[in-house]
Design brief:
The structure is a homodimer.
Chain A lengths: L1 E2 L10 H8 L2 H13 L2 E2 H4 L7 H14 L2 E6 L2 E6 L1 H7 L3 H9 L1 H5 L19
Antiparallel strand pairs in A: 1-3, 2-4, 3-4
Helix pairs in contact in A: 1-4
Chain B binds a DNA duplex through α4.
DNA sequence: CGTATAGTTGGATTGTTGTCAAACAATAAA
DNA sequence: TTTATTGTTTGACAACAATCCAACTATACG
């Protein structure tokens, strides 16, 4: 299990995060990650409408901006949102963006208490 | 008093707002506006380190993204943040960005207490 | 070993963006 | 009317970014 190179929490730049999230494809990837918790690149990039190399480029952009964490297990690479790091550095930012991105997913059910903003991280998944 | 063309509140796109705010110069302009409430372009662009035509381009970008509202009074153009519109469309987004931005911007004066929700809007707007 | 799977890299292309400089437009003031 | 002030527009240009395709690496599985 290898961890790919990522910026340290304190090195995450606001403008880079905003730029990373200003692309619809990347925003969609992030939205999926927020729901699924952790996904392989193949799953995250499924039906995105772009070539796999393009998707790979977006994974890299997200990783280098400090938005996602990527770890390699075997020949698979798992991506997950760096929720805690982002929230520590820019409190409330990711939540507000996710809320604006996934209105249907959240505002539907969910007790939505202040302690559980946005889809709770569902760590383990299928 | 003339109002320049702006996108309607419901037409403000998240990705465009994020993109608009992903530029350091524009982010600085927005930070200044959040403190001053309303400024002329000259004041907002003072000491930004870019040519005035470049600043003008940024004003336009911010306006077209729906981030700022511009009204012309005489030969002056006053810009102000579209706080209410942005907050209605993307709750909490602008605040989280300003909170992450301001400490670095107004390192002087201002209590910058963590409890205060970003500088209060000092503009004459609603 | 050979083959399939997962994802990256390099090249090419096309389009976007940030920047400056100079010319311009509109308004206010003298 | 002439001049100064404010800001925009246009053109040029270099840097960047999104995309595809093809080739590549690395791991897993027979």
């Amino acid at each position: 299990m290898r961890l790919l190179p990522h910026p340290a929490t304190e090195d995450i730049e606001l403008t880079e995060v905003l730029r990373a999230l200003s692309d619809p494809v990347r925003l969609e990837i992030v939205a999926r990650l927020s729901v699924a918790g952790e996904m392989t690149c193949t799953v995250a990039g499924d039906d995105l409408g772009v070539h796999k190399s393009t998707a790979s480029h977006h994974y890299r952009t997200l990783r280098e901006a400090g938005v996602v964490l990527t770890k390699q297990v075997g020949r698979l690479k798992y991506m997950s949102l760096r929720r805690d790091d982002l929230d520590a550095r820019f409190p409330g930012l990711l939540d507000s963006i996710l809320r604006a991105t996934l209105p249907a997913v959240l505002t539907s059910a969910e007790g939505t208490d202040a302690a559980a903003p946005v889809p709770a991280r569902s760590g383990a998944d299928a």
